[in-house]
Amino acid sequence: MEVTADTNLCLGSGNQRNNTRRTNRQRWTDDQAPQAPNGFSLSSLEKLIQTKSTASPKHNMLHFVLAMMTPSVAATLFTDTDIKLLAKAKAMKSFTVYQDCTELTQGFQAIRQICQTGRYQNTTTGEKVKMERRRMTKASRDEAEEMIDDNDTFHNAMQAFVDKYERQVAAVEQGCYCSFIMYKEQALFLGDLSVYPPPKEDQDGKADLVVIMHRLAVQVRRHAEEVEQGPDHH
């Protein structure tokens, strides 16, 4: 998905249409991420569609932006696969994915902590509970300590669970980290404070970057097809 290449035309148009300046941009800037010059509010992408030509009202600014590209370039901005993946990601919601991955990995870490230390820490209250192995009946006075009950398989079962799923959980954790680093880098490149961190629900001033990109992808494909068909077909 060519998000950064050949979209300077859109960036320029967005800058022209965007009347709000983000005073907190420097505080949010990550020096490791490339920046679009000045950036622009992603909400201004809607202006590309809303702004009609005075000479031909059925055409909007997005038609003209795409018409300035070669057909081969316009066709590769968003492929069928890109749109399907964006639609799937949109349905899942970025915040929900992050929350689910975090809960999964934190819960797994708590189980691993039981295996390693014999203690469980409640992630909500911070309370620590010692998870002792069950003992046999009270030891006699001659025995130094009580014998462990071999029928208590709790700790063994927990260790087997950790051993079985540790690699899969690590893959989920790594995938989540990489995905949201990429999400943040795209938001930083565009310079829009409204999409990071991804909101729990769409609200005034906040939006999921994936939702915006899916909407843009659908509009770009539709408008590119209309440009290819010529002015008499739309």
UniProtKB/TrEMBL annotation:
The FH2 domain, residue ranges: 1-234
Coiled coil: none
Top-rank taxon: Eukaryota
Positions of the UniProt region annotated as Disordered: 1-39
Pfam families in the cross-refs: FH2 (PF02181)
PROSITE patterns listed in its UniProt record: FH2
Name this protein carries in UniProt: FH2 domain-containing protein
